[in-house]
Design goal:
The complex is a heterodimer. Chain A is built from nine helices and six strands; from the N terminus they run βαβββαβααβααααα. Chain A is α/β, with parallel strands linked by helices. In chain A, strand 4 (about 70-75), helix 2 (about 80-85) and strand 5 form a beta-alpha-beta unit. Chain B is of the alpha/beta class. Helices cover about 35% and strands about 15% of the residues of chain B. Chain B has 19 helices and 22 strands. In chain B, strand 6, helix 7 (about 135-150) and strand 7 form a beta-alpha-beta unit. In chain B, helix 3 (about 50-65) runs parallel beside helix 5 and helix 16 (about 385-395) runs parallel beside helix 17 (about 410-425). Chain B is globular, with a radius of gyration of 27 Å. The chains are: A alpha/beta, B alpha/beta. Strand 2 of chain A pairs antiparallel with strand 8 of chain B, so a sheet runs across the interface.
């Protein structure tokens, strides 16, 4: 369907990407959209490259996102943002954690972890927003809240209210973790990286 | 009430609403969550069985007793359960019997890409294939109606993109089916030749009746959008086709993929100029059409392997391609790895060092075949490690002067390793069977099993005593090691592969991801002592990498298991890594 929007969530198995898709699903249903979320379970969750597809619109058929089809990519790790860039629509938006996690071929010395990936992505006329989500999660009080920081950063790029996302967090995370997650969301949502500030100031 | 349900969750809801009483399954991606969600409903008795054959037999027993029953499994699990399947097709049922089977096109987490529709045809059992979570719920309920109307088990086929996709699903109430009592009926339930011969005739007549049902049932739908192009499809392929082709073509969406209709296909074919069959994996619908003399385009255009997508269909039928960008920088791959602190790691390091033939099996530990450990020679199916090592031993008597080794997890050993081990003892193969006992079914996401001492609901129960079991089947040499103690693990394995006798080594240490496992403080690499020799990298831990010319331990990943300690001859790995959280 022409009006269907596609969000690709990518990361490394074990990073908590499934919570991100759960929150998105919650917000999108609340907004009255038809939604499909496709997850991969099993072997790739063991530290492999993982991908979740979120699609919404008036009627969504396929659960998959193919090359050149994603309106947004939310990446939990630099290398994964670069790996899945071909899935982005020309002129699409990338929200990426600046974290770099070495994959096994880099650890064993077969490959090298490429440098300046985010700069390269930006040079492709991609709207890129990025932050050190681990640092912000620590500021919020829990290093594990990286996923919610990234949801905050991502929410800023979406045409919905911050409040919609906060409601979703309230409905999804356990009560004892609510405060730290709200703080993490807020830090991501309010975050402005250096480049963006300069753009806004016209520098 | 409409909710965003996983396909598997919707099947579980369908089981609940259909008034199912007994569920017995074995976990396997992508089918596992059906049974996990089912276990959250107190109205249904739900269990993990030791394997799929047992699971289906339990469900058969419950159905014979007059209750609605279900068994869930992945595609290769249906091979294990094929024996009861092909005969319960003859006996038929009393209470409804549905078997959920999840195929994995693209092999996200499987060792092969088999198409379980062939089992439906082989066993002459009807098979439904939903295309969304909503249909997962509705078809599950319909499957019980069909089962009881036609006195047959019914297969419910999912694929990964249906089982593991969430979509909006309307939920209803549970309806208790009318009570059916058990009455003794030897000609129906006892399949010996004299009873089975007439039952086979019944099965053939039943298939004819089901073909009639398929001709005008509510789940085989025609959507006419002009006469130029027609598409016959089912399951997730229907969704890909709708997305790719929209209202440009006409559709025949098949909700029942076995048996297939005849007149419905002929009539649809007569209404369009060109007819495509869009189906992942085998040419199941296509070959049926060809047999009827219907001209279709199928596997001469679409691949036999992997998953389809809207883009593939657009390319093949409309000749359209999509623009996309890419980076010039080569992107290193990120294969799955054993987690930091995984107790399997040390065992594979030791096996590599010993240079033995390693007959592998199905589980997280299949990752022992990946670099840098690369310590596995074969992986075929559940249980094949033990019997494969046995065959290797009988053929050439080991490798490099040492016994052949089998590695198998606790859950897989219970599933189908025990019979292989009985053969080892009975026919005296001098193999070493290493049972990697991490006290859980790991790969599928932590399910309990008969060796853990807990049921699917987390209630305490009896646990298999692995040492006693191995001794009881006739293995004299049974050793237990802690795989975190790398030196002892190596020395024990060395002694056993040189013993020339049937042997079992149980490497016991719970999965590092279990919530009950407390992690130790992270280690750190003392930079002054490290000379960058990379010896520590040989264990393939994702927490250890090289930064510059020195090794580095990522304190956020390290769980302090200490398996790497003995690898550093300079003692550069020391306590006191700071978890930065």
């Amino acid at each position: 369907m022409d009006n269907t929007k596609s969000i690709l969530i990518v990361g490394v198995g074990g990073q908590g990407t499934l919570l991100a898709s759960k929150l998105m699903g919650h917000v999108l249903i609340h907004k009255g959209y038809d939604v499909k979320v496709s997850e991969v379970h099993g072997m790739s969750q063991r530290g492999g490259s993982v991908v979740t597809y979120v699609r919404y619109g008036s009627q969504v058929h396929s659960p998959l996102i193919e090359l050149g089809e994603a309106d947004y990519i939310l990446s939990f790790e630099q290398l994964e943002a670069a790996r899945y860039l071909p899935y982005l629509k020309l002129g699409g938006t990338v929200v990426a954690n600046s974290a770099a996690i070495d994959p096994m071929p880099v650890i064993t010395g077969v490959s090298r972890y490429p440098e300046h990936l985010l700069e390269e992505i930006k040079a492709r006329s991609v709207a890129l927003s990025t932050c050190d989500a681990l640092e912000l999660a620590r500021q919020a009080g829990n290093a594990k809240a990286v996923n919610v920081v990234l949801i905050g950063l991502f929410a800023k790029q979406m045409p919905f209210d911050g409040q919609d996302w906060k409601e979703a967090i309230k409905a999804t995370v356990p009560a004892r973790l609510l405060d730290v997650n709200m703080k993490a969301f807020e830090l991501g949502y309010q975050y402005q990286d250096q480049d963006q500030c300069q753009d806004q100031l016209g520098i | 009430m409409r909710e965003l349900l996983l396909g598997n969750e919707a099947v579980a809801r369908g089981l609940y609403e259909a008034g199912v009483a007994v569920i017995s399954s074995y976990p396997g991606t992508p089918s596992t969550e059906i049974t996990e969600y089912a276990a959250t409903y107190s109205e249904m008795y739900t269990e993990w069985a030791p394997n799929e054959k047992v699971a289906l037999e339990v469900a058969i027993g419950a159905a014979v007793a007059g209750k609605r029953a279900f068994a869930g499994m992945k595609h290769v699990g249906l091979n294990v359960a094929a024996d009861p399947l092909y005969t319960v097709s003859y006996t038929g049922i009393n209470g409804g019997l549905v078997i959920g089977v999840a195929d994995d096109p693209g092999m996200h987490s499987s060792q092969n890409e088999q198409d379980s529709r062939n089992h439906a045809k082989g066993a002459k059992v009807p098979m439904l294939e939903p295309a969304s979570s909503e249909e997962c719920l509705q078809y599950t309920k319909l499957a019980y109606h069909l089962s009881e109307t036609y006195d047959t088990p019914v297969l419910l086929r999912l694929t990964t993109r249906i089982a593991h996709a969430r979509s909006l699903t309307e939920m209803g109430e549970r309806l208790e089916p009318p009570a059916r009592t058990y009455s003794k009926d030897i000609p129906k339930y006892v399949m010996m030749p004299a009873m089975a011969r007439p039952k086979h005739l019944v099965v053939e007549r039943r298939t004819e009746d089901l073909i009639q049902w398929a001709e005008d049932c509510s789940i085989n739908n025609v959507e006419l959008n002009g006469t130029r192009i027609g598409v016959i499809t089912s399951g997730v392929s229907y969704q890909y086709a709708k997305e790719a082709l929209g209202e440009k073509v006409s559709y025949l969406k098949l909700g029942m993929v076995y048996p297939l209709p005849v007149e419905l296909l002929r009539s649809f074919a007569s209404q369009v100029d060109k007819l495509y069959v869009i189906e992942e994996l085998d040419d199941f619908i296509e070959s049926h059409c060809r047999k009827l003399g219907i001209e279709v385009v199928g596997k001469d255009l679409f691949p036999w392997t992997g998953e389809f997508s809207q883009r593939l269909i657009q390319e093949k039928i409309l000749g359209l391609s999509q623009e996309f960008m890419s980076l010039e920088t080569p992107i290193p791959s990120r294969p799955p790895v054993m987690c930091a602190g995984c107790p399997h790691r040390g065992v594979f390091y030791a096996l590599k060092k010993l240079g033995v033939f390693v007959s592998g099996d199905i589980g997280c530990y299949t990752l022992g075949a990946s670099a840098p450990l690369s310590a596995m020679d074969t992986c075929i199916c559940m249980g094949a490690s033990v019997s494969g090592a046995h065959g290797f031993d009988k053929a050439v008597g080991g490798h490099n002067g040492k016994s052949a080794v089998a590695v198998i997890g606790d859950s897989t050993f219970i599933h189908s390793g025990i019979t292989g081990l009985i053969n080892v003892a009975y026919n005296q193969a001098k193999t070493v069977t290493v049972i990697l006992d991490n006290s859980i079914t790991g790969m599928t996401g932590h399910q309990q099993n008969p060796a853990t001492g807990y049921t699917i609901k987390g209630e305490p129960t009896s646990a298999v005593d692995l040492e006693a079991l191995c001794k009881a089947v006739g293995i004299q040499r049974v050793r237990v090691v802690d795989p975190y103690d790398l030196e002892d693990t190596y020395n024990t394995l060395k002694a056993e592969v040189e013993s020339g006798q049937p042997s079992v080594v149980i490497a016991r240490r719970p999965c590092a991801l279990l919530k009950t496992v407390t992690h130790q403080q992270a280690f750190r690499m003392e930079q002054e002592k490290c000379v960058g020799c990379k010896a520590c990298l040989q264990i393939g831990c994702p927490a250890i990498s090289i930064k510059g010319d020195k090794a580095f331990i990522d304190a956020n990943q390290c769980v302090g298991c200490g398996q790497c300690l003995s690898l550093c001859r300079l003692g550069a790995i020391v306590e006191g890594g700071k978890n930065r959280g």
